[in-house]
Amino acid sequence: MSDVDLKGLFLKHADTLRRYLLRKVRDPQLAADLVQESFLRLAQKPSSERIDNSQGYLYRTASNLLIDHIRQEARRKTDSVPHEALAEIEDEVAGLEAQAMAQQQRQALKQALAELPERTQQIFRLNRVEGMTHAQVARHLEISDSSVQKHLAKALAHVMQRLREGDVTPSDE
């Protein structure tokens, strides 16, 4: 196609083709790019290939280019999820990891406590789990306050030692 013919086609159809694409994409820059690419493809057609309807060719080419563009954008789309949502997912994963670790620690604590004498376990549970003071535990079990403190010290020392040794694992239950 000669430059004169191409220029004439451009002057005649470029504006209407751009408006047509603009209605479809609502992006003036993209519409202009697609118009230019359509005319570029028409200009690159070998002269041996005759085009009977240049306007139809331009519209069909522009429509196909638009479809290709939309498909490529869909494939490339990485920001379809806002960053805040990704942060929430990361927070959930971190929360799940923390929950799993806390569960493992509870199991390890439970196992270490199971190794203690029954009375020491009972005092530990009343004080640390149920929240009773030393005096309340002493009254409840009818023992001295110092006895409660000794049992708690024994329980805490044993638990800390077992956890430091790493001998206590959740699967040892």
TrEMBL record:
- The parts of the chain that form a coiled coil are none
Q: List, in alphabetical order, the GO biological process terms annotated in this UniProt record.
A: DNA-templated transcription initiation
Keyword annotations from UniProtKB, A to Z: Sigma factor, Transcription, Transcription regulation
What GO MF annotations does this protein's record show?
DNA binding; sigma factor activity
Q: Does the keyword Transferase apply?
A: no
Q: Which SUPFAM superfamilies match?
A: Sigma2 domain of RNA polymerase sigma factors (SSF88946), Sigma3 and sigma4 domains of RNA polymerase sigma factors (SSF88659)
Keyword Lipid biosynthesis appears in the UniProt entry = no
RNA polymerase sigma-70 region domain residues are 9-76
At the top level of its lineage, which domain of life is listed? Bacteria
Residues in RNA polymerase sigma factor 70 region 4 type domain copies: 106-158
Q: Which family does it belong to?
A: Belongs to the sigma-70 factor family. ECF subfamily.
Spell out the NCBIfam families in the cross-references. sigma70-ECF
For this entry, the protein name equals RNA polymerase sigma factor
Which organism was this protein described from? Pseudomonas brenneri
